[in-house]
Amino acid sequence: xxxxxxxxxxxxxxxxxxxxxxxxYSYGGTVNLFWYVQYPGQHLQLLLKYFSGDPLVKGIKGFExxxxxxxxxxxxxxxxxxxxxxxxYFCAVNPPGRRALTFGSGTRLQVQP
Amino acid sequence: DSGVTQxxxxxxxxxxxxxxxxxxxxxxxLSVYWYQQSLDQGxxxxxxxxxxxxxxxxxxxxxxxxxQFPDLHxxxxxxxxxxGDSALYFCASSVERSSTDTxxxxxxxxxxxx
Lengths: 113, 114
What we know:
The structure holds two protein chains of two kinds. By secondary structure, chain A is mainly beta. In chain A, 0% of the residues lie in helices and 50% in strands. Chain A has strands spanning 4-5, 10-14, 19-21, 24-25, 32-38, 44-50, 56-58, 64-68, 73-78, 87-94, 102-103, 107-112. In chain A, the strands form three sheets. In chain A, strands 2, 5, 6, 10, 11 and 12 form a six-stranded mixed β-sheet that branches. Chain B contains no helices and eleven strands. In chain B, the strands form two sheets. In chain B, strands 2, 4, 5, 6, 9, 10 and 11 form a seven-stranded mixed β-sheet that branches. A four-stranded antiparallel β-sheet of chain B has the order 1-3-8-7, with no helix packed on it. The mean pLDDT of chain B is 94. Chain A binds chain B through residues 32, 34, 36, 42-46, 49, 51-52, 90, 94, 98-106, and chain B through 2, 31, 33, 35, 42-45, 48, 55-56, 58, 90, 92, 94, 96, 99-108.
């Protein structure tokens, strides 16, 4: 089935460690790609998005993501995490021809001070 | 603050009951999406309305329905509630001018069915 996969379900890091969260999708054709963050008790906030062009996308709060078409991947990175980055991170895709988002299962990031 | 508002924030009800969740999109956005977030199913798309018309359907149960009013606010109606309907219900809105629109999410309504 066509889907979005986030392989890391729970990640624990110390402050200042580097972060990379994996996201793979299985749709062919042109897709739009997003990373959303959900802080505890809050709503989903857009971190960054990719529609076309430069495959390295910079978002808010020092996050970036790289689209690798050949690998159907859109991994999220941050060079140095902070305690305030503790949250759940969702990768999402607009499948071709559809406006609704298909989400991955989410990755819970816990940053220890 | 995304500009999308949802009421109520929390809703506790009993099995078999019916509830209505409300969403007001960002100013200027014509499209409203409803998503359900549950522990076992994750985040799933339910239904989309655009300028008052149903545009797309996802994994929405027949017991659930939605509508979008002329002022563009939307309501999600959940009936014959079951324990498994307990979840966080989000709405999102977008301008819907192109295929590269971004959806902005509201704070959600947490529904607990007892």
